[in-house]
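Protein 1 of 2
SEQ + STRUCT:
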Amino acid sequence: MEKTNKIKLFIGLFYVAILFLFLYILFSKFSLSEITSYEFIKNNRNYLNELKNNNLFYLSFIFLIFSAIWVFMAGFLSPLALFSGFIFGKWLGTLLIIFGTAIGATSLYILANYFFKDIVKAKFLDRFENLELKFKKSEFFYLLLYRFIGGIPFAISNIIPCMFNVRPYNFFYATLIGILPQIFIIVSIGDGLENLIEQNEQVPKMLDFIFNPDIYIPLIFFFVILVFTIFLKRIFYKK
């Protein structure tokens, strides 16, 4: 038991160290003001577009691996999905981000299931024990609903199913399919932002964002899905 606890402690510390190292490298290269400036975004858009046109396969592979690591390290998914659409467009961007996310989320689930199941149960079992019966009835179907509905921070939602011993391949495919609608919408917004920046040398006005069909159409679908998932969440998480 003592040896197991030491292994868990080592993995946990290693996980946190890698996360802080990644953030340090990111922000040591660029300041927050640089990253959020319009000039920085536009200039790097041109650079990344040139890189993509010269070597699409290489850049796609790097982004796929980066996405998997980002999700595994509990990074926020929405900014990454926006970035994917911004660089790769809505079709290739969606494909890359859902596979990268599914790989990273499944890897995190396997890690939590193997080393941190007791900790996860102690923290979350009281809140989500009603899901155990649902997963036993039809593991893949309810995992699919669980992924589609969301309502839980994504990093936490990746580890909760380890309380119920769901199969990793069911977790992978349920994640791949379940997150697709929301991810496609967010990636489409990123693609719309890229098109808008391409057409404007200066920062676009707010009305340009609001009335651009590449922006407002995905946003409409996003809010429709949001309302629908709120309704489903009341049923799915009902005890």
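Protein 2 of 2
SEQ + STRUCT:
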Amino acid sequence: MSLADTLSIITPTEREIVITRTFDAPRQRVFDAWTKPELLRRWFGPRGHVLVVCEVDLRVGGTWRYVLRGPGGSEMLLHGVFREIVAPVRLVSTEHNVDCDAADGAETVITTTFVEHAGRTTMTGQISYPSADIRDAVLRSGMRRGVGEAYDRLAEVLAATGGPAA
């Protein structure tokens, strides 16, 4: 299956991006891969990138912090706070992308939902930016390729941890 068949990125409002992908795995496994550092380290980021720091305090008010290192050695710091956790159905958190010129250090709010049907899970991430300019800069930054590759890696992790993944 090609990336175009499995990944949807839309802009429903001037300040939002909605990313959707269906995985051939139960919701709990997808939620675990999204929230457990030992699994996140295996897939988070585009191909060639490594999550060298992965800290997750999975509770409302808890923080998360990632440092993603690229193939040339450049690093990107991402961090935020969990606002809502309804495991394994929904996560709401803030995100600060400190090293991304496109995001300009602005706080975004990400709502991620996990919906299971017949053993497959559709994961939808709704990202709300503080302005249309920041959202548009993120879209121009190569986000589609990066997210696509990361989600392909996630599908591979899901396949390796319990069955096929789309």
